[in-house]
Specification:
Layout (H helix, E strand, L loop, with lengths): L1 H11 L2 H34 L6 H47 L2 H4 L4 H43 L1 H48 L1 H6 L3 H54 L4 H44 L19 E8 L9 E8 L4 E5 L6 H8 L7 E6 L2 E2 L5 H6 L1 E4 L10 H6 L6 H10 L3 H5 L18 H13 L5 E5 L7 H14 L4 E5 L11 E6 L2 E6 L1 H7 L2 H15 L1
Parallel strand pairs: 3-8, 3-9, 6-7, 7-8
Antiparallel strand pairs: 1-2, 1-4, 4-5, 9-10
Helix pairs in contact: 2-3, 2-5, 2-9, 3-5, 5-6, 5-9, 6-8, 6-9, 8-9
Length: 577
């Protein structure tokens, strides 16, 4: 029932073109059946009763019926295809928006291949159900009603025998349909696991080759395929039984009609034309009933896909939908962290505990601490990747969780230690669809010290950088990501070890350039080398998720505490490197 409600909600958004498509299908069935019924007049009136003056008239009616059927079939198929493209686009857009709304902490608990499977399998299956299977199912129901009326008015006994024969088929088909749905659910999961593994196989090709694990990968895939084929054969066995029942229905109906009809012709209570027509109509009735159950069988897989998609939506529907656009692009605001505590899923220890701090507007703020101190976790929480267990993070006294994500991210630019780059041109990786002047692009490229590299490329900004930017060095990837964040000129720039792959001289030069162009704007830095944050307006020192020191570089050095030890360790590391 829940699946039917879900289907209805999707159909109602396209109700007019959907209704038009169903009307065309009804007319198509009517034209096809009328072309058969008219043949009785041709046989009985023209050929048997020798009323040859009606020949052209009856033949014209049959021709009109066939032509109408052909035109309606062509037009209805086009409309159904149009509907399917609309449904697929709508479903894909909705699912994409759903993915973008999932908190990163939740998103990362599942494999990428599982999300891809929803796109490649579930959405396609649902689109076909909504656009093709349901309208065709209604068409078959209309045909059954029309054919039942015509056959019943011709000979009620033939109709009774056909209906009784079909009752047994319906009961058997219902039994098979429930088994088919269960098997489809299992197969859908098996397919998802195979897709997940294939995605990982392709992504890890380099590691598999280096560690000589190709045989191990093949064995893993073979096991998954073996488990899939076991259930696929079971599903095919159910299909075979269904096909056998279909053919038995069709030819059983034919034999019944021929037997009864021949007897009626023999005793003179039915004309030869009526026998020929009722035989054809009974076959059409059997085909219509068969068509309904074929559609039901196909829809079982689609219903499983709907259940999968609904389960995915429901898994993450607890997130609050907020439409607060208080913060506008370019606004100056203070960020305050108030008694914040957070721990990762299935982790007993808190990554951040009772943390309170303030990030004033227009300042350069540094987060410092040893590995595991909570720096990157705090950045993730600032980016709304997950919600706090307790406490709040506010922007001008408004919880960031109550600010619409689009509005919040308009104000923020971020560069991670391992940025994601698209298999596209350098220009598109920087702009991400934004419209920016060539002068502005050149300016930002100079800031991140990529101008010399791009000038030596034959295709310049139009150079394609390959899958995840693997044709670039680690430092070039990070500088490209820096340019991507800076080109938007965000009010808040977050650098989470964004220059870790750069040499010391290049890093210092780029950080100095960034400081120059971002005066009056907030910059939050998680530093790889502490020398780059010495000029910060405020340095927060974290340890085990708690704030232990606050101040400027020189002030903290004078305290001779954790920050001093971190600086000394950093200097020693740089000397060794």
């Amino acid at each position: 029932m829940n699946s039917l409600v879900w289907i209805f909600k999707r159909v109602i958004d396209n109700k007019w073109i959907y209704t038009f498509a169903i009307l065309l299908l009804f007319l198509e069935s009517g034209a096809y059946i009328s072309s058969t019924v008219l043949q009785q007049k041709l046989i009985d009136n023209v050929f048997i009763n020798k009323e040859y003056d009606q020949f052209l008239y009856v033949l014209s009616l049959i021709a009109v019926s066939y032509i109408s059927y052909s035109l309606l079939f062509t037009i209805s198929s086009y409309v159904l295809a149009k509907n399917m493209s609309n449904f697929l686009l709508s479903l894909a857009n909705n699912y994409l928006q759903h993915l973008y709304s999932i908190k990163t902490a939740i998103f990362q608990k599942r494999r990428t291949g599982e999300y891809v499977h929803h796109f490649t399998a579930d959405i396609g299956s649902i689109g076909r159900l909504l656009a093709w299977d349901i309208p065709r199912l209604l068409q078959q129901l209309f045909s059954i009603i029309l054919l039942t009326f015509i056959i019943g008015s011709t000979n009620i006994y033939v109709l009774i025998f056909i209906l009784v024969f079909n009752i047994f088929y319906i009961l058997f088909a219902k039994h098979l349909a429930s088994k088919f749905k269960k098997m489809s659910k299992i197969i859908n999961k098996k397919e998802s696991r195979i897709l997940v593994r294939l995605e990982e196989c392709i992504s890890s090709t380099r590691e598999v080759l280096i560690f000589n694990r190709t045989k191990w990968e093949q064995q893993t895939l073979n096991k998954l395929f073996d488990r899939y084929y076991v259930h696929a054969f079971k599903e095919e066995n159910i299909r075979s039984k269904h096909l056998l029942a279909n053919e038995s229905l069709k030819w059983g109906t034919s034999l019944i009609v021929l037997a009864i009809g021949s007897y009626k012709v023999y005793v003179g209570s039915m004309s030869i034309g009526a026998l020929v027509i009722i035989f054809q109509l009974s076959l059409q009735l059997a085909d219509a009933i068969k068509g309904i159950y074929d559609a039901i069988f196909r829809s079982m897989r689609s219903i499983v896909s709907i259940d999968n998609l609904r389960e995915e939506y429901n898994r993450n529907n607890h997130q609050e939908e907020l439409k607060n656009n208080t913060l506008l692009l370019g606004d100056k605001f203070t960020i305050s962290v108030e008694d914040a505590s957070y721990k990762y899923f299935n982790n007993k220890n808190y990554s951040i505990r009772n943390l309170s701090m303030e990030i004033p507007p227009g300042k350069k703020i540094a987060l410092v601490g040893s590995s595991g101190s909570g720096k990157s976790t705090l950045i993730s929480l600032l980016l709304k990747f997950d919600a706090l267990n307790s406490g709040e993070i506010k922007a001008d006294n408004l919880s960031i969780m109550k600010i619409e994500s689009n509005t919040w991210f308009q104000n923020i630019g971020v560069v991670f230690q391992e940025p994601y780059l698209f298999s596209d041109t350098i220009r598109n990786n920087i702009l991400l669809g934004s419209i920016v002047s060539s002068e502005r692009l050149d300016e930002i490229i100079k800031v991140v010290c990529l101008d010399d590299y791009i000038r030596q490329l034959p295709e310049g900004y139009e150079t394609v950088i390959g899958e995840r930017g693997l044709t670039l060095s680690g430092g070039q990837r990070q500088r490209l990501a820096l340019a991507r964040a800076l080109i938007r000129n965000p009010y808040i720039l977050i650098l989470d070890e964004a220059t870790s792959a750069l040499d010391m001289n290049t890093e210092e030069k780029i950080m100095k350039n960034i400081d120059n162009i971002r005066k009056g704007k907030t910059t939050i830095v998680v530093a790889h080398r502490l020398s780059t944050i010495e000029n910060s307006d405020l340095i927060y020192v974290l340890e085990n998720g708690s704030l232990v020191e606050t101040g400027k570089h020189q002030e903290l050095l004078e305290n001779n505490s954790l920050y001093t030890r971190l600086v000394q360790k950093d200097i020693a590391t740089n000397i060794r490197s």
